[in-house]
């Protein structure tokens, strides 16, 4: 698109429900993908990569990917204190 225009954001489709959501409002989630040849020999090839998937707010909340900032900060503090 070249220049960034205010008020115009490229829509992405939700991975779960297919709803069209502006990219700025969508929740981006890095999903790990594994690919394997499933050959039980020494020539077995495995490959792992991270793929970006987008969720609308309602699907992300339902799946537990997205949570309120206050709750996220509380969990992060607990994790830093105890582990």
Outline of this structure?
The protein has two helices and four strands, in the order E-E-E-E-H-H.
**Cα-atom Rg, whole angstroms?**
18 Å
Order of helices and strands: EEEEHH
Q: Say how many strands there are.
A: 4
Q: What share of residues is helical? A: 25-40%
> Biggest β-sheet: count, sense, barrel?
2 strands, antiparallel
Lateral arrangement of strands in the main beta sheet: 1-2
Structural class of the helices, strands and pairings? alpha+beta
Q: Strand-residue fraction?
A: 25-35%
Oligomer: single chain
Tally of domains: 1
Ranges with pLDDT <50 over ≥5 residues?
none
Shape: extended
The number of helical runs is 2
Query: pLDDT average, as an integer?
Result: 82
- Spatial gap, N to C terminus: 44 Å
Write the layout of secondary structure elements.
Layout: E1 11-13, E2 20-22, E3 27-36, E4 46-55, H1 57-63, H2 69-82
Antiparallel strand pairs: 1-2, 3-4
Task: Outline the structure in words.
By secondary structure, the protein is an alpha+beta fold. It has helices at 57-63, 69-82; strands spanning 11-13, 20-22, 27-36, 46-55. The protein has one domain. It starts with 10 loop residues before the first strand and ends with a helix. The model has no long low-confidence stretch (mean pLDDT 82).
């Amino acid at each position: 698109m070249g220049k960034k225009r205010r008020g115009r954001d490229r829509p992405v489709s939700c991975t779960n429900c297919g709803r069209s959501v502006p990219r700025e409002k969508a929740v981006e989630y890095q999903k790990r993908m594994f690919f394997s040849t499933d050959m039980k020999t020494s020539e077995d090839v495995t490959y792992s990569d991270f793929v970006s998937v987008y969720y609308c707010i309602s699907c992300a909340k339902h799946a537990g990917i997205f949570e309120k900032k206050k709750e996220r900060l509380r969990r992060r503090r607990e994790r830093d204190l105890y582990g």
